[in-house]
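Please produce the structure of this protein holding iron/sulfur cluster.
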Amino acid sequence: MGLQPINPYKRYIMVTVKINGKEITVEDNTLILDAARDAGYEIPTFCYQADLMGIGSCRMCLVEIEGQKKLQPSCVTPVLHGISILTETPTVMSARASMLEFLLANHAMDCPVCDKGGECELQDMVYKYGPHKGRHAEPKFKFHEKDYALSPVIIKNSNRCVQCMKCVRVCREVVGRNVLGALGRGDHQEPTSFFRSFLDCDADGNCIEVCPVGCFMRLPYRYKTRPWDLKGADTICPYCATGCRMVIEHRDGEVIRARAQLGVGMNSETLCARGRFGYEIINSEARLTTPLVRRQRHGTLEPATWEEAFRIIKERMPSLGGNTVGGIAGARLATEELYLFQKLMREVFKTPNVDSGSRWDAAAVEGFIAATDMAEGGVSVFDCMEADTVFVIGSQVSEENPVTEYIIRRISAGRRMNVIIAGPRAMKLDSSANLLLRHYPAAEAALLSAVILDINAAKLAASADLTAAKDAKLDGHLKAAGLTIDDVRALATKLRNSESIAIMAGTEFLRYPHGIESLNLLKELLRSLGKKVRVMPLLDRSNQRGAWEMGVHPAFGPGYVKAPAPGLGISGMLDAAADNSMDALYIAGADPAALYPDEAHVKEALSKVRFLVVQDIFLTETARLADVVLPGASFAEKDGMLTNQEGRAQIIRKLLPPPGKAKVDLDIIRALGEMYDRSFGPKNAALVLDEIRRAQPMYADVSLAFNNKRNVDNKLDNKAALVKGTKAALTIRKFEQAASGQDAQYPFMLATGNHLFHSGRLTNYSKTLNDLMKGMTVEISEEDALASGLAAGERVLVSGAGFSVTLMLTVKKGTKRGVAFIAENFDAAPVNRFFRKGKGAPRVKITKA
Amino acid sequence: MEKILLKNLNNPDAHKIDVYIKGGGYKAFEAALKLQPDNIIQMVKDSGLRGRGGAGFSTGLKWSFIPKDPTIKKYLCCNADEGEPDTFKDRGIMDWDPHLLIEGMLISSYAFGASASYVYIRGEFAFGAKRVQAAINEAYAKRFLGKNILGTGFNHDMYIHCGFGAYICGEETALLESIEGLRAQPRKKPPFPALAGLYGKPTVINNVETLACIPAIIERGPKWFSSIGPEKSPGPKIFGVSGHVKKPGLYELPMGTTLRDLIYNHCGGMLTAKPLKAVIPGGVSAPMFTAKDLDTPLDFDSVAAKGSMLGSGAVIVMDESTCIVKMAHIINRFFSHESCGKCTPCRDGSPWVTNILSRLEHGDGRPGDVELLESLCTNIFGRTFCPLADGAVMALRGAMKNFREEFLYHEKHKRCMV
Ligand SMILES: Cc1cc2nc3c(=O)[nH]c(=O)nc-3n(C[C@H](O)[C@H](O)[C@H](O)COP(=O)(O)O)c2cc1C
Ligand code: SF4
Ligand code: SF4
Ligand code: SF4
Ligand code: SF4
Ligand code: FES
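Below is the modeled complex.
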């Protein structure tokens, strides 16, 4: 069963075995295959994959065990003390050759037109292990004449299948989608999906990645190249803070593939749809390739030279800006860039007003960092998965952080543990959970307070007065959360009965910050009960954690060191701007106009900023309002570092130069600084990293070396890359719960977040990702759909106070009644229009369009 | 010999519970309920009963592997898939004496603590399935099944599960997958079903005939049972004889009856004057015998000692008019058609073998075919996931060993010798 989490309570018994005469000592129950590989002997495999359950079906890995008549499959046979294993005898070698001969018997063998040619495991193995002469001279069985598309991203040729079932198994065991299965029997067995079409596929293409041959293939990549004509760069997926490692590859300047590698990164071979198919943004026609300036006050944005753009900036942005100048940097920029950005704002523009991201309130961020222990250093997801209980709250993790979700599913299936999920909407991971709590949006606080009360009940029971007060409070919380006392008791019981607990807390806490305090309280309470508690944030922007750790925040600098005089965060800056008191704002890689919850407010505020500089790779909603637009570089065009949600620092490598006159963001930030102060720097990414290491103790000795290497024996958890802890004085402010109230006219509470196929507005520039959706959608529960006489697929009108939009209805079983979800990714249905600053979750009604 | 297993074969109403009870039915079960479960397991061990599904594993021993923890749910699965061509013994019991099977299952379940059992019936056996279901219903009505059976506190439910036409469902772990609603493919062992079987719970899988032996063991004692036939492989055995004999059919005889006795006495001898050419002693995967082997006693060990196997006890008799290449082709075609597709050698190797045999048989042999067949047999045998493909290879090897010149003739002259 390959990768098993190391259980701290288990004692490991070591046994000694002989492999090809060499004596080695391994843990009892190690698979012969792993033991042999450890000892340096190669054993070929098709159906074995470290992170899937062993099936022992391809028979490539047969080995001899002295004293046993039959050859044994090493991928499913554990070692026994004292056995002697032979992996290279003539019998073993001939068995390997004969397996390949059998596999080739019905194989299409159309390598010249096969996309896999050149990186095909079957080709490689035949080359290595023979047979080099064919004996099969019978008619071949063919599944079909022409390749068929299973989805907009997957095309299939079953005539090349080696029946290892990895595709089916990854879909079931890792992705949890279960849309693949085998049809037919014997040599007619075909791994595919019913009706040869995917009804409910996540389009992540993990089946493609694990397929050793040219059977599951990428549709967008089809016939575009041979692998040896590709140039690649190791990088990190830019679309969420899971931080999946991948390789992007281009041919003649066009990126045509992103792929993950077995045993590399914490994701190993898996990615989600965004990572695997979202690379088209790099070569998008819509990329900004030249600076744009607004030469007249109400004129249009026109192309300009860098010199002109910089001249205008210098004229209109005084260096001694102080409090009327501000900077907002996107949480997708590289860590080095973010560091330099805040340095520019603080040291050159002398302003404390610096923040990252487009949506979260700075005080909420500070509290969240404290509640999730981020300053205490990185927490590996694999460590979390060793806990007795994993409690996911405030995140639609199946859609926000798909690969994190894969890890939770895969590991929790292999061991006895609790998986508890609290959230308003049903999601794929629910099937791995043994406790689900469906609460209303923005009710994390109520739920957590109720649990805290219940866990504390014993203490309170002493006094009747307290008990009464408690009951009244509890009732209030339950009502606010839409839960029953049984739900809460079940949760409390599971927490009480666990020795170790991992809480994974998502961005809903940032959207509705009044939950942060309770999150922190629960954590402390559990610790006071002697439990080992780990907290891991679940974040949606690839370098959100890096941005915070670099001090792109008004209250603290790099390393969470308190800023001498705290400045304004994004909300404060927007308020000031709306108040006509922002002279200049520099926004790099962030799009608050599209994402800040309250579109009217943010747009008004930005238009009132006297001078707005926006640096981005697309003409975003925010860039459209700018006076100067600077074209930056995508993740494929720079070297740098990103820190994922676990606190794992990982490097990205430049594959291509930025398009046209666009420049790497670090160079833009530095040049801007140099315009005011020639000595501003450091001058390149490597030097910035040195300075970060010196200035920021969390990064002083994090190892980036390991990043792109194949991790030995598939141990995916590279702890050397986790940032270290530091001393930080962070405050958790109390937030009042903004009541969203009951309103019979608007029966639904609106939730938002990222769609599975999108990340902010950035991925809208990927045609492939857009094509995966049949249109913009609003999702409600099955019961609500029934009750309102609406059917999935129908066009519906979603209206709130002051805004309405027509969308396609999707229906989800298990979602809380009274909850509607619209993703924040749709350009044509900006969900932030429904939101009002300072008001809770907005309410909407849904009617037939 | 007195019939134990087929005693009701000619009793048209024996499938009705009242008739069955009148003939002494369910007495053994009632007696068993008064015994300690462990004693029953010991009795079955002492009887020497070996599984009639093909492998001949000691039934009592198999039951004793089941964990004793009463809090763990346990299952009994009756293997009534009987999918091998020429095997038709189990349906005799299901069609005509279903209560014998149910009684056997009840005693077994009581012995190792199974609270539910499944009869996995081959899909084509629609009549048998109907009969067994009707019998189960009657048994519920008479309180032999359900809660607190006969006031003893023993609870047991019984279900039938009909297959859908795949031979591999007879393989015990594939059978479990099939009951669970999955594709029927063998499971990796270990864990063995006795520890993690149906729905992950301890499970015993026994053949119909095996289970049908149980009531008699309880009623008459293990000594009586083990005194029938050879010491290591005792008991009554149903032989299903087909082919070129005067009276094909089911014969219940003591283990150890010789092939000659079976064919020439019980079955009335060869069908015509044509002499016997070959005989398969235990189902199509058993290597074939020739006339010189006729004195082999039909029991697990004696047949194995001669390089074949007793398997399910299906005996196929072939006279001189039989083309062995054709026979080999038919047998292999069956196995490659029934390959579940899981493992490479069986999935891709068996059809290859079949294709070659088909050519040989149809006058399209090529030089080197026989040699190639032998090499493919080496490459398949012992390397597959389950024994299905081994069966195909054993059959072919047996045929080629005894009748190699016939294969070579087909290869060279592109036609049949016979
Ligand atoms: C391919 C294959 C098919 C089998 N088919 C049957 C079958 O139809 N009936 C049966 O009783 N056993 C069959 N078996 C044997 C079973 O796996 C198992 O050994 C048997 O049911 C155990 O029962 P017993 O101990 O009572 O013999 C088959 C085995 C294999 C490998
Ligand atoms: S899968 Fe491999 S061996 Fe098969 S056609 Fe493609 S490249 Fe060739
Ligand atoms: S399609 Fe690919 S992954 Fe799936 S079984 Fe066939 S060879 Fe294996
Ligand atoms: S979006 Fe997140 S989960 Fe998906 S591939 Fe990228 S980093 Fe991994
Ligand atoms: S030998 Fe392999 S392919 Fe054949 S039936 Fe058994 S598991 Fe399936
Ligand atoms: S790798 Fe071991 S059987 Fe496939």
